[in-house]
Design a protein that fits this description.
Elements: H1 43-58, H2 69-77, E1 86-92, E2 96-104, E3 108-112, E4 118-122, E5 126-134
Antiparallel strand pairs: 1-2, 1-5, 2-3, 3-4
Length: 136
């Protein structure tokens, strides 16, 4: 066998890598804090505090199945707008309905099925609510 002659040639294409410049980070150097004076509680402020407490109890992390029926319906009615609607199974004494909760009042709830047909269910007839999943 004949040894091949190795000839060093320059590459046909150069890939130029830019030299990485070190980025300068502008960090916060000072921090000031002032203590805000306490607001005097009036009748209006006390009412706002009570409403705030009610809102806070809604955001307590709880599993859906551990919630009461009223809490489940309130959760489904106030579902954030950035989430797709939740498909649920609404069980009554006579029948069970699958669909998305559209409206919820003290006496009845309106459930829309996959076809868009709305069904009114009496609140007193409702036994349980089970989440099925998100509607695409």
């Amino acid at each position: 066998m004949r040894k091949q002659k190795v000839v060093e040639t320059e590459p046909l294409l150069y890939i130029v890598q830019p030299k990485a410049m070190r980025a300068a980070a502008h960090m916060q150097e000072t921090f000031t804090w002032t203590n805000r004076p306490q607001q005097k509680e009036t009748g209006d402020a006390a009412e706002q505090m009570e409403e705030g407490e009610e809102q806070r109890t809604f955001f307590v992390k709880k599993e859906f199945q551990a919630m009461t029926l009223d809490e489940q319906l309130a959760f489904l009615a106030r579902l954030p707008a950035h989430l797709p609607p939740l498909k649920c199974q609404f069980a009554t004494k006579e029948q069970s309905y699958e669909g998305v909760l559209k409206r919820c009042t003290a006496t009845e709830l309106t459930v829309a099925d996959e076809r868009g047909n709305e069904t009114a269910i009496g609140r007193a007839q409702l036994l349980s609510v089970t989440m099925i999943g998100f509607v695409p």
